Amino acid sequence: MKARKIVVFVLLLVFLGLLIVVGSISYNSGMSYGEANAEKIRKSKIISVDSVLVENFVTAAYTRNEKSPIMVKSSGRIVPGKMIGISSEVQGVLESSITLKKGTKFKKGDLLFKLRDTDIKLMLAAKKSAYLSLIAQNLPDIATDFSTEFEKWNAFFNAINVDQPLNEFPDFNTTREKLYHI
């Protein structure tokens, strides 16, 4: 056991000694080579432009920048790069003869959806009727408080048609009249 330790220790010392000797020899040879011969080495590494042979040539041509059409003929399925969701809030019943699913074909100009707006038109007529009722309730007060302006408001009331767009609101002549209607 003791002999084995001694043998391992001696071999380790021999290995370290060899490593130190080889390292110092290589260091000294590199230093002397670089210091003493530096100028010779540098001159030998310089390459003259005249000594370089050009063997390969590149063909070049004058060009003019212009747009060129890209024509690609292919078949397959078109897949969008980015999916978007379109949503809008309108009231009514949405009718469609085309179901928009993957692979559904349609052409430019095809009607994709139709909005049945009869419910909305009836609701708008009801709102206009309620508006007419409010104006009719205020006409007697306008006749007593603003007797000079009554004809203007009466003409506005009579010109309203439930099936037509509303006319322009009459102009206010006084601040008191404006505050009354607001």
Give me the Rg, rounded.
Answer: 49 Å
Helix content: 40-55%
Which runs of at least 5 residues are low in confidence (pLDDT < 50)? none
State the secondary-structure class.
Answer: mainly alpha
- Major β-sheet strand ordering: 1-2
- What would the average pLDDT be, to the nearest integer? 80
Structure summary, number of beta strands: 2
- Give, in order, the helices and strands: HHEEHHH
The shape is elongated
Cα distance, first to last residue?
Answer: 113 Å
- Please indicate the percent range of residues in DSSP E strands (runs of 2 or more): under 5%
Describe the structure.
The structure is a single chain. Strands 1-2 form a two-stranded antiparallel ribbon. The longest helix is centred in the N-terminal third of the chain and has 35 residues, at 2-36. With 182 residues, it is mostly helical. The mean pLDDT is 80. Among the domains are: 2-35; 119-181, no CATH class. 48% of the residues lie in helices and 3% in strands.
Topology:
Layout (H helix, E strand, L loop, with lengths): L1 H35 L1 H8 L47 E3 L18 E3 L1 H28 L4 H10 L15 H7 L1
Antiparallel strand pairs: 1-2
Helix pairs in contact: 3-4
Keywords:
182 residues; mainly alpha; two-stranded antiparallel sheet
Short description:
The chain has 182 residues and is mostly helical.
